[in-house]
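Methods — Computational structure assignment.
A single polypeptide chain was analysed. Its primary sequence is given first, followed by the predicted tertiary structure written as structure tokens.
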Amino acid sequence: MASRPSPDVIYAELSAEDNSTEIESLCTQCWENGKTRIMLTKIPYFKEVILMSFSCPHCGFNNNEIQPGAPLQDKGCRIELKVERAEDLNRQIIKSEHATFKILENEFEIPPTTQRGISSTTEGMIAQAAANLEKDQPVRQHIDLDTTGKIQGVIDTLKAMAAGQQLPFTVVLDDPAGNSFIESIGTSDTRLSKTLYERTREQLQEMGYNVPQANDTHTAATAAPPPPKHGADLPDHLRAANWDFSKSIEDNIDKRREEEESGNIGRDEALFFEVDCHHCGTKGRQDMCAIDIPGFRECLVMAFNCPHCGVRNNEVKAAGAIGDKARRWTLRVTDPEDLNRDVLKSDSAAVRIPEIDFEMQQGTQGSAFTTVEGLIGKIADHLQESNPFTGDSSAQNELSAFTQTIDDLRKLCSDPSCLPFTLVLDDAADHSFIGRRHPERPQEDDPGLTSEAYDRTEAQNDELGLLQMKTEGYEHEQPP
């Protein structure tokens, strides 16, 4: 099994060219001064992170740590990985300082205070845990032989798991901050699952956030009623930015409706409002416009531009309610003319191309209104630019397979010998659309395009949040 460089090697390779900063800091082992090297960077498919590496020239003590540079996420995350093959031991793992690492089979747990803020692999996490336990075994032998023997059994089990000799087993990474990550392998990774959840007040307090208690009568009496919740159960000062953003959208929509009724604004004119840039945190401009897609429905086009850091992004979202059923669009691309068909892909749509064994799960890429050729090109560009596991630290067989997938996607649009192929858009919310070859002649048959409505599965309803949504009798319930 190919192995990745250890975090020690990665940190040791940082240089002045990496925009790193060195500061003098105190060594906690010998109380002499050592050096801490800090570098700000961003891991694609993850968050902004801060890499820190400390070394002491006096006693030789070294310490490496990774901390998220991104803000607290809207929800916590629980990532579960079923380690069934040797390749699963080589998956990259990022464990934030608030995350708990568990192995369910032997009820083993690495708390947030241990191995905090590291970038490693499944094998590396387990092997390091075994090494940490084994380090104090000689001392335990002189204190309690019975406890020493039990701990030695745990150490032997962990070593067997790290070496791939005791499979399968299940690892869980539970992070209330939402800033942890486990690498996905392949286009359809059935062994990896991720669940988002609402944080409790206790979890927020453990992370250091000041949450008023229910029995704080002075605070309850003087504080203003909180606005409706958005995302996590955040303190008011953290929720304020999101609340102002939502209110500004509602105010602008109401204003636009009034102007439309009075005839002062056209349907193709855009609204704009200020929102915080997710890169630099300063105010940027968010434009929004409603358009009608022929043969489909009204959609919202949103574009953001930050004048300070220059970041730009755009997105298209289908307006209206979630469809009564899921819908699967299937297009048989037989000639270059099919590559020019209009495509609206929502963020709830999965994309499949069976001929090259490619599948992209829903939520992997944002929504877009483009053509078949443009959609495939965007997917290839997104994979090439954003995947963090294509560098020197990747296993060679994984890198070759990933590169081949990108090449296959690009050939679909540039090499006529790759025709025909099949493009499938499977949207649980029924917010996606593939246009006809000749929309100006709707009476003509279009045998290459089919659309199938089907009943959503329970898992799809859960992904869309429909299982937790109450649509009847809610007006009679008392607020919490």
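Note: The mean pLDDT is 76.
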